[in-house]
Protein 1
Amino acid sequence: QVQLQESGPGLVKPSQTLSLTCTVSGDSIRSGEYYWTWIRQPLGQGLEWIGFIYYSGTTYYNPSLKRRLSISLDTSKNQFFLRLNFVSAADTAVYYCARWYASGSAGWFDPWGHGTLVTVSS
Amino acid sequence: SYELTQPPSVSVSPGQTATITCSGDKLGDKYTCWYQQRPGQSPVLVIYQDTQRPSGIPERFSGSNSGNTATLTISGTQAMDEADYFCQAWDKSTVVFGPGTKVTVL
């Protein structure tokens, strides 16, 4: 059974960099079948796709975050990473990692991690 | 950028049918999926590729997509179905989520 687990600091200061790790178990991120994804959700609000990465290193980013965003991976550790620069209070949210399956023009996220709350505050 | 709209809330009596809509320009030309998010939990996929139900999702969940509207239907709604439901589509290499619909089982 595939499981994803987010980890990283729960508190980041404004203008600094938010860094999170997603550790995957039960599947290999080198399998080539899936993309590995970050999604966030401000408390009490909706879901926002951040971006995803393929095992080859190919990335797709949300255009609204692209200039501050970097997603990378370490296949040897079966982990992928999120870095978001120059954060502000607007980046406070629960951050989820998830597996994206693409089939033709369809795609969906399954499963999701439990999520980790990141607060941006001084 | 592509946008999806959903009603903020839907109320349903136990045992009745809940219908949740998701609208977008020519949405029927794209594939839509749906996620259920219970309070304090992560989202769970309940419908993918418009009509497909993942393993473990009850048969009372069904989906359709045509024209500008995708629909999630919960037949014989149970108290455990009370949750937020989000639609999602894939457009021009970008993932788009709807704003979510809160389903209340009265």
Protein 2
Amino acid sequence: QVQLQESGPGLVKPSQTLSLTCTVSGDSISSSTYYWGWIRQPPGKGLEWIGRIDMSGTIDYNPSLKSRVIITLDTSKNQFSLRLRSATAADTAVYYCARDRGYGDYPGGRHFYGVDVWGQGTTVIVSS
Amino acid sequence: DIQMTQSPSSVSASVGDRITIACRASQDISTCLAWYQQKPGKAPKLLIYAASSLQSGVPSRFSGSGSGTRFTLTISSLQPEDFATYYCQQAHSVSPLTFGGGTKVEIK
């Protein structure tokens, strides 16, 4: 059974870098064909996609965050990480790491297989 | 960005009711759509992928339909454990992947 677990500071000062790590168990990120990504949820609000990465080197970021965000893989530790620089109060949220199963093509169209495994989420507060 | 508009934003219903949640995309997304259920303090759970395929382990009372720009999630007979918030997500365009605003299903 695949499990994901977020870790990192729960409190970040404004203008500093928010850094989180997701540890994957039950699957090898280096041998799988999935995307590994981050999604966040501000208090009382909906879900916001941050970005994702796969083993082929494909990295997709939300354009609204692209100038501040980096997602990386560490296959030796079976982990992936999020770094969001120049944090502000607007970055206060529950951060989820997740496994995205990606796509399948068929004649005339394309399926999306969904985000099927999520971490439990970690709360990050940006405050002085 | 592809905008995903869910309706209604909330619905009050009773155990045993049939409810339908709509999700409209601002442009054609084929079947690049998933539905999630989220309970308070918990991570979202995948219910439906590829617009109409039931995720393994999800009860058959959940079903999804649609393609292009209009999609629906139906719960055929609402159970106590189904009271939650539901989100649709498009993945046709990765700039960015986007979620609907959510539909909260509450007990009448």
